[in-house]
Design brief:
mainly alpha, globular, 283 residues
């Protein structure tokens, strides 16, 4: 089978399979899902921070010369500022009055939101952007593995799908928390996952050039995940301050971190092993 077709097939598999597996979360009855949703947000915080600090940022620094460390750090900071500006623009776009203070969310004692929730809506939009960048990088890595060895490519694709599933569950929680319907949450996540295919195809034709810019894609994806976790999701956890809820939140954040770290290490070690070898093999 043509190598390019294999890359297209398995990048699609690696991206879409993880979304479909995570979409089981959407099949829960509405009442049960609404109870699980706040816990999903806590889990998503841990997952996003672990992906950023344990996976994306270390791998970004591994790919550059030490003389460029400061430049890469600056790029991460720039990413945080850019996502702040992007969120401002998204909130302004949805603001239909002179002051967006009128959109502050109000919760009743049952925990249901009665405000417009544009802050959470913008967080949902940004998680899709960050996920698309992350998936694009995964596509590059899958293609690199296939260009090294077909068996390595297949294993890498399955590893990508495996370590993406818990993060995708968190993404669904964030989108539903932001007011997206189940259908839209699934559709947008599938569309974002297709950037894996784009990354794979571009890598097939120009892996050497993409290899130089890969650390900066990783840094930008990390910036988006850090910003969403810290600026949008963590503040929402402070609405409830009782001890039981607080301990649950901490436990679920740690669960998100632990699961991503345990899956991420094996998956990305396999992926990055073949990147430099693939560039030489292909050129």
């Amino acid at each position: 089978m043509n190598l390019l077709l294999l890359i297209i097939a398995f990048t699609a598999l690696g991206g879409v399979l993880s979304v479909l597996a995570a979409s089981v979360f959407l099949l829960l009855p509405d009442g049960k899902r609404n109870k699980v949703l706040p816990h999903g947000v806590s889990f998503a915080i841990g997952a996003l921070l672990a992906v950023a600090f344990w996976g994306l940022i270390p791998h970004a620094f591994e790919q550059v010369d030490p003389s460029k460390f400061q430049k890469l750090s600056g790029f991460i900071m720039l990413g945080l500022l850019l996502f702040f500006v992007l969120e401002k623009l998204l909130i302004w776009r949805h603001c239909h009055s002179g002051s967006c203070e009128v959109h502050v969310e109000v919760e009743d004692h049952s925990g249901h939101d009665h405000g417009h929730g544009h802050g959470h809506k913008s967080a949902g939009t940004m998680i899709l952007i960050g996920d698309a960048i992350h998936n694009f990088v995964d596509g590059v890595l899958i293609a690199a593995a296939f260009l090294t060895d077909v068996q390595l490519g297949i294993v890498t694709s399955l590893a990508v799908a495996a370590h993406e599933i818990p993060q995708e569950v968190g993404d669904f929680a964030i989108l539903l928390h932001g007011g997206f319907s189940k259908r839209k949450a699934l559709l947008y996540n599938i569309l974002a996952s297709l950037s894996t295919v784009v990354g794979g195809v571009l890598a097939y034709y120009s892996l050497e050039g993409l290899q130089e810019s890969l650390p900066y894609f990783l840094a930008m994806a990390a910036s988006s995940f850090i910003y969403i976790a810290v600026a949008d999701l963590i503040p929402s956890l402070h609405k409830k301050t009782d001890m039981k809820t607080s301990l649950q939140q901490i436990a679920l954040i740690l669960a998100g971190v632990t699961l991503i770290v345990s899956l991420h290490g094996v998956a990305h070690d396999i992926q990055f092993e073949g990147v430099s070898e693939a560039a030489h093999a292909h050129h």
